[in-house]
Each structure stands twice: as structure tokens, then as C-alpha cells.
Amino acid sequence: MAIRELRAATLNSRQFIKDQVKEIAETVGDGLAVTALSGGVDSSVVTMLGHRALGEKLKAYFIDNGLMRQDEPRMVAELFARFGVPVEIVPAQKEFFRALKGLVDPEQKREAITQTFYAKVFRRLLRKSRARFLLQGTILTDVEETVAGIKRQHNVLEQLGIDPKKAFGYAVIEPLLPLRKDGVRKVAKALGLPKSVYARMPFPGPALAARVVGEVTPERIDLVRKATAIVESELKAARAFQCMAILHEDRFAGMRDGKRDFGMQIEVRCWESVDARTARPVWLPARVHERLAARITTEVPGVVSVTYNIASKPPSTMEAV
Amino acid sequence: MAIRELRAATLNSRQFIKDQVKEIAETVGDGLAVTALSGGVDSSVVTMLGHRALGEKLKAYFIDNGLMRQDEPRMVAELFARFGVPVEIVPAQKEFFRALKGLVDPEQKREAITQTFYAKVFRRLLRKSRARFLLQGTILTDVEETVAGIKRQHNVLEQLGIDPKKAFGYAVIEPLLPLRKDGVRKVAKALGLPKSVYARMPFPGPALAARVVGEVTPERIDLVRKATAIVESELKAARAFQCMAILHEDRFAGMRDGKRDFGMQIEVRCWESVDARTARPVWLPARVHERLAARITTEVPGVVSVTYNIASKPPSTMEAV
């Protein structure tokens, strides 16, 4: 299926919303649909569109996969409660960590998260809720990068020739397919979502698992979660397209209290970009680098080394794995 | 043995040279001594002191361990020829790479280099030359860091309780033990060595092997050698205490020609320091970072990601492993 791109610059948000609400309502009919909120702008917009189209026939879940940032589940639920959309937080940490155990290959890690998400947790929720439709925030860049073989996005199924109806027992509705990130932000604003949502940094489907090189364990996620909180708070003023902390698997010589400490490294990336297709590092003042390094080596246990990404996309990608 | 430190600020270089030349001459007596030049300021100063003390009774070698930088063996030999000191280049690449094969632990890698250097290549040279003394450029910081257990310097033996006479069959003379790097530079200048030597950046004993995380192979040394040449040429103007390229073992998502390319990462470090005991990153202009990243991802095959170190020493160390 060829997708006709709708460019942000010429996008009529109100018309787009009206069209999509109508189409969702028609597709779902008398049935029920579910949506998985992650707090990101894509899934937030899809949830609002679904809510407008279906009202109580839409059930919104937040799957707590154990890979989210500090306080994320609670904050997302609170935000949508204000819009009259009840969000059920589904605890699934153990299932995800069990699926990720021992995996070091990035594609295998993404696949484990995809399978746990769609085939296990979501299938269970759909059965329980008797829904036949899954509303999902896939955007054009996700599809392109997956088809090109650059990166497997966790939410791209049909484009890979996977029929979710056959594979998982439900149909997927993807209203944001013609848009890129900048278009989604415009629609989010038109839907009345707050700036914390429409201007929010992209955050990957596999969440913090995409920012751990090597095996994803609860302990390693906890380290990168701490580093992420520091990076996001220190770089707020940089108004970057995206910033992140990445925990490396390599170990580096370090010293603490005059003794050798063979420790870990955190890489910080802070991107300037319009549509995520290309990106450049943001050049930060020296004092920001100094503060980042000082806080991360002090507050994240076992970290002796901190680096800052200086390569562009391409040949880099925005996320690490 | 307690070492009495001679501080650079109050060091009388001429007196120091006179004293050391006398002591070396007395210690070696009628015998022969050898020195292993690496091109660094420490081994260059020791070679000049030995040359003044012993003349033709000193035999200077450059061990080509396969881990040196671009053109280093040839350039060092040419420089000392100008001072009337003949340098014999000893090809030993195969022995070092054989000893390093399969090793990933930094201490094991250092140990393999130490053993190959002292117990194999050097012992052979000493037998051939019938020398009983090895002149060596160990400085105070090497000893302190080894004793503290921060990092095993390849040239510290007695301080670790190893008797080189018993272990390897020769005695080690270390005239620079009371000095730190700044003191050695002062002596180098007083000896008439050119600025390219006395102002030269420190380079580690294990050479480029200290800048490869994981296994050291000829192929991986070749990659870090290419990156090192780029970093040293692009950062010449920064007048840093030390700058380096480090090849990581971790792999990162990247893209080339629109296709996924799971590639390598090079970390650049550029240090501001007086005596190597503490150090801070040099804050470079954005265009320097851009050029470094562009050249490294273009000229070093398989590299998709480039980072810049932003942590200080401590808790980092200057070299990576």
C-alpha cells in the first residue's frame, strides 16, 4: 500500500481530525477498540482521535513494561484523566524482562518487546475487553525506516507483510500514517493537548531498552533511567528535538578515592532536527557539559565516563540500537 | 624505596642532567646498556642521557610492536640519527599480536604486552647485544598509579616487587623516577631536543592497544590508527595536553545510502592537564567537532558514530583501558 504523505506546512489540522474521527467511527462501528498510550505525542493524538470517535467504546491502556522513564505511567494517566479519558495502567514489567533476558542483539531485543507487547499483553487485554481493533500511532518515518531495513519500529506490522488479524487476532487502525512528527505535533495542538504533549520529545517504542547497549536487565534500566532524568532536566533549556542518555556495555578505566574503578560509560545525545529524517548534534555551552558529566558520574552508581555524541544522522541514527 | 619528588618549578635541569649522566656512567661501568625508544618525551630523554653517559656503549632500539601510530618508527629513527644516535628498528608485530589474541580484559592485555616486551623481545635483544642494563623512562606518576592499583604501567617492575634481574636477567635503570611529565619536558628542552619531542603529547606504553576496547587485532589497530591520525591533525591547534581516539567494542545503529549499517563508534578525548594527575576536557568549537565527526565517519571504514569525552579525571582516567 502506497501512503500519500501529508506535509505539516500545508496540513489542515481541523479537516484531518474531522476525517480521521469519521473514519475511525465507521471502521469500528458497534465494536470496541483499544489504544496503548505511551505518553508520546503519537499515541496521545491517536487516543484523542479515538476518544472523539468512539467515546466509551475506546479503552485506553498504559502498559507498564518496566522500560519507561521516572514517574511516566502515573503522569500520563493523570494527564488524560483531565481530558475525561480514563487510562488503565497494566503492570507487565516481569513479562518484558523475562522476554529480554540474555538478549544482546538489538533486533532480537526489539522483536522480544514487539512479541511481548502484541502477542502476549495486548492479546490478553483485547480478549478481556472483547475489542477487535487496536488504534495505533505509527507515522510515515517509522514505516520508511522499517521498510528500508534501517531500524525495526515496534509498531510497524502490515508494512512488513504481517497480518495482525491472523498473527494476533485483531485489526490495527493507524490514522497517523500520512504524517511525520511535525504534522503530528500540529494535530496535537489542534486537539487541545497541552504543550508538554505536542512539544514533547520523541521517545522510542522500545523505551529505555533502546538506550541500553547489550543485555536489558532491571538493574541496567534503572541506571539509564537515572541518567535520562539528569539529561532531560539539564538539557531542558536547550529546546532540542530529542535528547537522551545511553548506557554502554563497554567498560572503561576510572578512579575513585585514589583507587582503580573499572566502570561504565554513559553517552549523551542531543539532537537538532525537523522531521527525524536527518539530524545534527546541538552544540552546548561548556558549563552544561561539565554539569552533565559531574551529575552523571556522581548520581549514577558505577559510571566513570561520560561522552557526548558529535556525529550527525546519517550515518548515525538518533537512537543507539 | 621512597622516591623524593623533584618539582618542575624548582628543578635545575642542567644539574639534573649532569647528576644523571654521572650516575648512569658509574652504574653501567664497562658494560653495555640498551634503551627502548618509543618516540615519547620520557624515552627520548632517557636515550639522550644514556647517549651522553655511555656513547657507543648504549644501543637504542625501537621495538615495532605493530601498535604504534602512522609512520612513527621511521620518524623516530630519523630524528635521533640527527643527534648522532643510531636507532635500530626491531620488527616484532607478529609476536605482540599473537600474545594479544583473544584477550579482552585490559589488565590481561597490558600484561601480555609487558611480557612480550620484557621477557621475549627485550631479553632476546639483551642477549644478542650482551647488555646487562636497560635504561627506562619511568616517571613518578607511573609509579603512583601502579602502586595505587589505578592502572598497571608497563614499565613499572620493581615497585610491584618484581626483580627484573631475576625475572628477565637484566637490571633496570630509571633516571626519571623523581620527575613528573612537566619536569621531563624541562629536561628534554635543556638537552636540546626539538619541540616536537619536548612538547609532544604523552602516548601510552601499550600504545594504540590502550585505545581499543576489547580484542586487539591488526584490523582493529588499523582502524584506531586511522582515527588517531585524524584526531591529532584536526586538534593540533587546540594545543591540548593529550588527545586521542578510542575504538569501542559496542556496536551502534547507523545508516548508509538509506540502508541500515550496524557499525562502530570512535570516542575522541582531548585533555587539559598540567601533570596528568587530574585533567579536564578541552571545550572545542562546534566546527571542530563537526569536522572530526565528518572525517572519522567518512575515512574510517565501518564507523557510524563519534563521541567526545566530557568527563574529568577523576573519576575518569586519561586513557580508556
H/E series of chain A: HEHEHEHHEHHEHHHEEEEEHE
What is the count of β-strands of chain A?
Answer: 11
Rg of chain A (CA only): 20 Å
Structural class of the secondary structure composition of chain A?
Answer: alpha/beta
As laid out across the biggest beta sheet of chain A, the strand order is 3-2-1-4-5
Q: Which stretches of chain A are poorly predicted, pLDDT < 50 over at least 5 residues?
A: none
The largest inter-chain interface, given as chain pair and residues per side, is: A-B, 51 and 51 residues
Which percent range describes the beta-strand content of chain A?
A: 15-25%
Helix content of chain A: 40-55%
Mean pLDDT of chain A: 91
Largest sheet data of chain A: 5 strands, parallel
Number of helices of chain A: 11
Distance between the termini of chain A: 28 Å
Describe this structure in words.
Two copies of one chain form a homodimer. The two termini of chain A are 28 Å apart. In chain A, strands 3-2-1-4-5 form a five-stranded parallel sheet, with helices on both faces. In chain A, strands 6, 9, 10 and 11 form a four-stranded mixed sheet that branches. The longest helix of chain A is centred in the middle third of the chain and has 24 residues, at 106-129. Chain A is 41% helix and 17% strand. Chain A is built from eleven helices and eleven strands. The first copy, chain A, has 321 residues and is of the alpha/beta class. Strand 11 (303-309) of chain A pairs antiparallel with strand 11 (303-309) of chain B.
